[in-house]
């Protein structure tokens, strides 16, 4: 390619040059772990009210095709099936996270790769290669955009998923480097989505993954049809970094896309708690003082700048959640739930949805949450770049205090969940819909399956009954 900036060339070539046989073993393990978590979440979240609404909406207007919706088995185009499945996978704040880019790649890249794989008649080898290609483009672009993308109010996942899905399709359809570049550039024209939902709610947040994933697939289809995009879509004066991040991309950014560099997919963060990942370090800390609520006079939580925007003082409903979105993005209430031993997982949040968990102003949870004060500490941004940490000081009624600091919450690459716990989460999300045997068969196909298995055969394991 002539007259193409080094960054844009490097991103496109990362996709086109990637081959299954050159993917390191730890990256392949990361891809399978990602699939295990994400596909279980799609099954378990299909019955949520917004998931049902998205399925009904898509049924009424979908394009025909050979890809399938998880659980229900509806057949439709890859773009439409991925839209629904990615919405399911991101639908309850329980999906994987990538700390350095403050995002959730799995629901995008897994949904896109499997739907496109079904449509193309691909094997799971090609699906996994597509997952890795999409994940690496998505996250490496995101790392270079952090932390400003989040701090400026954008939802990184809604923005980055457009690029991730376009990369998946470009890899799986065998685009050359020039067409891959145009697919990614066209995807840039679809980027949008802010985090205003953290303050005033709105179930559209649940669709952010589906919106970006479908748009990314469509962008690649446009490139295949001969549509072109600006070749400086990342580094140009009105490109991604100047416009969305507010600064030029870092010098030497092209090196971040070297195929010889560390794979971001080895750093998958699997969530043990069903809420925004920025809460997780604080929840881990709160569990250390679980059962001592009566002894607590006050709680001081030091927070990073970007975290304060999402779950802290700049979240309008952090101290008075009235919807499930408010609750899942409220640091004071998530901290209080953990201290009180009420749980922060799938079941606790379903209890709230069902009206069985009292969070009213006079409740035990709200009373404890009011003792929480949040202080922004910019020095944490400097000391822990690419991490979400928990800085906790508890003052007790007897005048003593306790300092708790968590820099690697449970589920992160530095503090991973055990395989046993991962399997427990998988079964918790899948057995009710797939049955014990169906759940076990799907898990085997993910963790030890044949790379040459047809994607359509694999995807059939995701259908209830």
Please characterize this protein's 3D structure.
The protein is of the alpha+beta class. Helix content is 51%, strand content 6%. The chain is built from 21 helices and 6 strands. It has a 4-stranded mixed sheet with strand order 4-3-5-6. Strand 1 and strand 2 (75-76) form a beta hairpin. The relative contact order is 0.14.
Which features does this protein show?
alpha+beta; 6 strands; 465 residues
Q: Which SSEs are present, and which pair or pack?
A:
Elements lengths: L5 H12 L7 H21 L3 H11 L7 E2 L6 E2 L1 H12 L15 H16 L3 H22 L2 H4 L4 H17 L4 H12 L8 H4 L7 H17 L15 H6 L34 H8 L8 E8 L1 H7 L12 H5 L2 H9 L6 H8 L10 H6 L2 E5 L1 H6 L6 E7 L4 E6 L12 H30 L6 H5 L6
């Amino acid at each position: 390619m002539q007259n193409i900036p080094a960054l844009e060339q490097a991103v496109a070539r990362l996709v086109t040059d990637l081959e299954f046989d050159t993917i390191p073993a730890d990256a392949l393990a990361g891809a399978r772990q990602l699939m295990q978590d994400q596909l279980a979440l799609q099954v378990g979240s299909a019955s949520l009210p917004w998931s049902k609404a998205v399925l009904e909406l898509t049924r009424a207007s979908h394009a025909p095709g050979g890809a399938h919706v998880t659980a229900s088995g509806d057949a439709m185009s890859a773009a439409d099936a991925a839209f629904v499945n990615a919405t399911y996978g991101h639908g309850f704040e329980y999906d994987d996270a990538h700390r350095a880019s403050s995002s959730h790649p799995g629901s995008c890249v897994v949904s896109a790769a499997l739907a496109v794989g079904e449509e193309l008649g691909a094997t799971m080898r090609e699906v996994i290669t597509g997952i890795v290609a999409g994940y690496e483009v998505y996250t490496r672009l995101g790392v270079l955009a952090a932390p400003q993308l989040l701090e400026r109010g954008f939802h990184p996942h809604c923005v980055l998923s457009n690029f991730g899905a376009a990369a998946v399709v470009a890899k799986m359809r065998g685009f050359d480097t020039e067409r891959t570049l145009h697919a990614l550039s066209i995807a840039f024209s679809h980027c949008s989505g802010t985090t205003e939902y953290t303050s005033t709610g709105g179930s559209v947040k649940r669709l952010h993954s589906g919106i970006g994933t479908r748009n990314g697939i469509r962008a690649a289809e446009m490139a295949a049809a001969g549509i072109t995009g600006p070749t400086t879509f990342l580094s140009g004066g009105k490109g991604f970094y100047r416009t969305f991040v507010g600064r030029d991309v870092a010098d030497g950014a092209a090196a971040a896309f070297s195929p010889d560099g560390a794979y971001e997919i080895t750093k998958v963060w699997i969530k043990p708690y069903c809420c925004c990942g920025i809460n997780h370090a604080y929840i881990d800390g709160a569990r250390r003082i679980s059962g001592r609520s009566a002894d607590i006079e006050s709680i001081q939580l030091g927070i990073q700048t970007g975290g304060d925007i999402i779950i802290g003082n700049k979240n309008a409903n952090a101290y008075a959640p009235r919807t499930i979105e408010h609750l899942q993005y409220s640091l004071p209430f998530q901290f209080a739930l953990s201290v009180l031993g009420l749980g922060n997982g799938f079941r606790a949040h379903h209890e709230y949805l069902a009206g069985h968990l009292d969070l009213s102003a006079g409740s035990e949870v709200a009373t404890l949450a009011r003792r929480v004060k949040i202080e922004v500490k910019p020095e944490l941004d400097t000391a822990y770049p690419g991490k979400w940490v928990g800085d906790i000081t508890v003052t007790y009624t007897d005048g003593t205090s306790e300092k708790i600091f968590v820099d690697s919450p449970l589920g992160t690459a530095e503090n991973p969940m055990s395989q046993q716990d991962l399997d427990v989460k998988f079964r918790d999300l899948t057995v009710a819909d797939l049955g014990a045997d169906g759940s076990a068969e799907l898990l085997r196909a993910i963790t030890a399956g044949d790379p040459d298995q047809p994607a359509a055969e694999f995807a059939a394991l995701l259908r209830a009954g």
